[in-house]
TrEMBL record:
Residues 3-121 form the Response regulatory domain. The keyword Aminoacyl-tRNA synthetase does not apply. Pfam families: GerE (PF00196), Response_reg (PF00072). SMART domains: HTH_LUXR, REC. PANTHER family: TRANSCRIPTIONAL REGULATORY PROTEIN NARL-RELATED, TWO-COMPONENT RESPONSE REGULATOR. GO terms for biological process: phosphorelay signal transduction system; regulation of DNA-templated transcription. The keyword DNA-binding applies. Keywords: DNA-binding, Phosphoprotein, Transcription, Transcription regulation. It comes from Promicromonospora citrea. The modification 4-aspartylphosphate is found at residue 54. This is DNA-binding response regulator. The lineage of its organism: Bacteria, Bacillati, Actinomycetota, Actinomycetes, Micrococcales. Residues 150-215 form the HTH luxR-type domain.
Amino acid sequence: MITAVVADDQPLVRAGLTAMLDLEPGIEVVGTASDGAEAVEVARRTRPDVVCMDIRMPGLDGIEATRQLCGPGVADPVPVLILTTFDIDDYVFGALEAGASGFLLKDAEPETVVAAVRSVAAGQGTLDSAITKRVLGEVVGRRRTQPVTAARATDLLTPREVDILLRLAEGLSNEEIARALYLEVSTVKSHLARMMPKLGVRSRLQAAVWAYQNGIAQPGPPS
């Protein structure tokens, strides 16, 4: 059973998302919150598999709440899925820097939201390929925090891992990466498991952020 916490300051959105997830087999909402501080308290008390977190909330916002739950230095992180109404928004990247495992727009189809919850709960994170390159490319381009050098990747990763990282930054799933590189899905998963500790990241989405920050992946149409 996947357990979830829903954090949103709009009662209608909070109730709707809670009802939608509770109707899904194998998913149970174990808590709700109307602001970031409450989200942190509820998540720490219930230890859910995933927190569905709004960004803009009164008091403690979703970014800081995310940082407290799964940011750098958190010994026992709780995975966070960001749900936002903004597809180009500095708040989105702030949440990614804070440690979020994925993000979706609130107008995503219900089945997409459910799939994202399952993916984040499984430790795979989620990347919306329709907006990932645009959001990360534009925002990371404005707010680089790492040296822009392709050598940084080649120093850390094998050529095959670089190939996988580039596809990951485009928002491709494991299955799509496997088809693109003529690999088995299990091989892709093995490469990802070895790659992420090298980069010091905890999720696929954080790996994609790393790729853009270091100039490995560039804005533009998917290859």
